[in-house]
Amino acid sequence: MSLTLHDRIAEIAAEDWNGCADIADNPFIGHAFLAALEDSGAVGPRTGWRARHAVLRDAHGQVAAVAPMYVKSHSYGEYVFDHAWADAFERAGGRYYPKLQVAVPFSPVPGPRLLIRRDSGVTAAAFGKALAATGDSLGVSSVHVTFCTEDEWQALGAAGWLRRQGLQFHWHNAGYGDFEDFLGSLSSRKRKTIRRERREVAAQGLTLHTLAGAAISERHWDAFYRFYLATVERKWGGAYLPRRFFSLLSARLGEAVILMIAEKDGQMVAGALNLRGRTALYGRTWGAIGDWPFLHFELCYYRAIEYAIAHQLARVEAGAQGEHKLARGYLPTPTYSAHWIAHAGLRRAVGDFLEAERLAIAAREADLRAFTPFRNDDAEETSTP
User: Fold this and answer.
1) First-to-last CA distance in the chain?
2) What pLDDT, in 10s, does the model give residues 205-232?
3) CA-CA distance, 169 to 160, in Å (whole number)?
4) N or C: which end of the chain has fewer CB within 10 A?
5) Residue 49, beta-bridge partner list
6) β-pair type (53-57, 142-148)
7) Residue 275 pairs with which residues in a beta bridge?
8) Residue-wise pLDDT tens digits, 134-159
9) Which helix H or strand E contains 288, and what residues bound it?
10) How far is CA 172 from CA 87, 169, 313, in A?
11) Cβ distance 371 to 383 under 8 Å?
């Protein structure tokens, strides 16, 4: 096996990359999505995301495994926060940046990160070892594999990587016939709350549309980009995605792009962007101009559930964080990341921190599940945390 690094995903044939990745189930790891980020300028040396995609080839020169990898000069746009590690190491005289990040930029969507061709014989542990060795050869402080699968997390942990857990909130389809069927599975108080929120959205005179693929025009993207910028500004955040990214995304991913739009008197006022995989709908980002009570819940959560039920998808993944999702049927779900740290002292300190953090995450997940919004025939009414 030989490993090479590439400054642009265009250097790797799409068929070779996608031959290692199940892009039908998770479009975020596909060549088209990653290329749209690069070609739009969302990632690159200017933004602190310098591509160094890893390609592992067998003795015949065939691509056996790939990984979306970047040299990072900061810790923004990752959603697995290591700022405290960087601060502590640099206060002690170390140099935390640059680091290597195996991730999908700006997308806290769990899925495979070590993309291995099924018949290659390569294991996640072996690929992880090669990536750690690459980090050592490049002189970076660390290598991070974020939002990976549990299987990858276990394999990397067995190979000596530090393991971290987080929590997201995902909705799971129990074979519901329609949205009312889903509501029937909730406690009466939660049903009443959701129905009231949806009535209040309807009372605002909004018209809602769900668009896919070719039905999404440049006019829609112009409006959506305004919503995106307005929401970023309200949250004092950074706009990672340039306008061109959305056009490239639409052109290259086609029917996998699902856009929920709200209009008032013929003018678009809000939107929620999703990508569709074979088994899941992935909430990506949302934005709005103006104050529309409960519209965020309607576009991002309730209409996503309706879409998943109508298209028989197994789940909706609504992005990072947000305990308010629990009351709306989205249950706590572990997320996983693995970390290779070269410096023994920093590695030991981070390892101690992660051990305590995993216990806290497990306890928090158990606490949250005790407040499930779903109906309990023995004690239907439960309290919200």
Assistant:
1) 51
2) 999 999 999 999 999 999 999 999 998 8
3) 29
4) C
5) 44, 72
6) unpaired
7) 257, 282
8) 999 999 999 999 999 999 999 999 99
9) strand 280-288
10) 38, 10, 9
11) yes
Per the CB < 8 A criterion, the answer to whether 318 and 169 are in contact is yes
Instruction: Give the amino acid at 76.
Output: Y
Residue keyed to tokens 């109508």? 310
Q: In CATH, what class is 174-313? A: alpha beta
* 349 and 215 Cβ atoms separated by less than 8 Å: no
Distances (CA, A) of 99 to 102, 227, 335: 10, 33, 21
Nearest residue to 296 (alpha-carbon basis) of 318, 319, 315, 270: 270
* Residue 88 Cα to chain centre, angstroms: 27
**In this structure, what token pair is assigned to residue 12?**
């790797």
Structure tokens of 204? Answer: 């605002």
User: How many other CB atoms are there within 10 angstroms of residue 234's CB atom?
Assistant: 10
Q: Which residues, other chains included, contact 367 with Cβ-Cβ below 8 Å and sequence gap of 6+?
A: 385
Sketch the domain layout of the chain as residue ranges.
2-167+333-369, 174-313
Sequence-ordered alpha helix ranges (H) in the chain: 14-18, 31-39, 83-91, 124-138, 150-158, 179-184, 188-203, 218-234, 243-253, 295-297, 303-310, 344-369
Rounded (10°) angle between helices 218-234 and 243-253: 130
Q: Which amino acid is at 43?
A: V
Contacts with 284 (C-beta within 8 Å, 6 or more apart), sequence order: 107, 109, 273, 274, 275, 319
Domain 2-167+333-369 is of which CATH architecture?
A: 3-Layer(aba) Sandwich (3.40)
Hey, what amino acid is at 186?
A: L
Query: In the sheet where 53-57 sits, what is the strand order?
Result: 2-6, 53-57, 63-67, 115-116
